[in-house]
Amino acid sequence: MKPPCELMVKTFLPATRGLLAHRLKALGLEQERIARLLGVTQAAVSYYLSTNPQRHRSKLLQMGVSQEQVESLISELTIAVQRSDSYATEVLYNHWRLMLSSGALCPAHRGLVGGLDDCDMCIRLMPTAEGGRQRFEVLKALKEATALLEASPTFGHLIPEVYSNLVYSLENPHDEGDVAGIPGRILRVKNRAKAMMEPEFGASKHMARVILYLRSRNPWVRAALNVKYDPEFLEALRSVFPTQVKHLDNYSDTQGFFEQLSHTSLEPPVGFIVDPGSVGVEPNIYVVGSDPLTVANIAVSASTIWFHTAKKNIS
User: Fold this and answer.
1) Which domains occur in the chain, in start order?
2) Gene3D superfamilies of this UniProt entry (predicted)?
3) Which site among 13, 79, 102, 239 is 20 to 30 Å from 297 CA-CA?
4) Is residue 116 exposed (0-12), middle (13-18) or buried (19+ Cβ within 10 Å)?
């Protein structure tokens, strides 16, 4: 068994010390003092400073630490280490605990050891991060919904040139970081849908904005999936879930697209939005709903109907 603290020993602490060493050096501190503040040797400080700070930062980002968290951590530690060892330790572990309880480090931990797909121990044992449990549930639901799309023998044919993404937000999202999606999106591989990575928060800026703009009129909307525009698939969607279809007007830029979304009213629990596209923008259909499992089930069911009734040749 490999506990999450192994992440701290192998990756988190060295990368954090590396960035902190660069920050302290930029403030004019000598290597000897930096070594004392970080509790390492001067040789270690020399190594940290000889390594590009972006490399240290990339290691933290790969663990699941967000850009905002990295900056907050290093800024607070820069002040804390110059005050006292105990205060710096408190700041370090507060950040570590918050990251564990949010579920942000779960994918990296699963990469170290198998059999942890349903593990939520850190979230349960460290409930101090606001929304930690909810974030875990959001990621879990997205993973299950994505598996439905990948298992479908027909949905892959409906992935647009810009690829698809499936997103799900917290109950009360404040910004794009509160909306989870699939990093690298969902691609078509041998006519099957294939998610490139495990779901993460902040993974799709465009789809996150779709959710946020729609919620100004439709607070029940938390999930969205984009597929390529096809009139026959639109009819298949309506046969699976009869609901009003909203057709957007032509627009000249992305802001025009989002402004229309902010004025689009939909009836829960599911809605279909037809995006006509623009210059250089591919037409899409957005299936939106209150949760990703509902959205995925509707899309998969409609893709089956569409595949068997479409009159054109499907390559």
Assistant:
1) 5-112 (no CATH), 132-309 (3.40.225.10)
2) Class II aldolase/adducin N-terminal domain
3) 102
4) middle
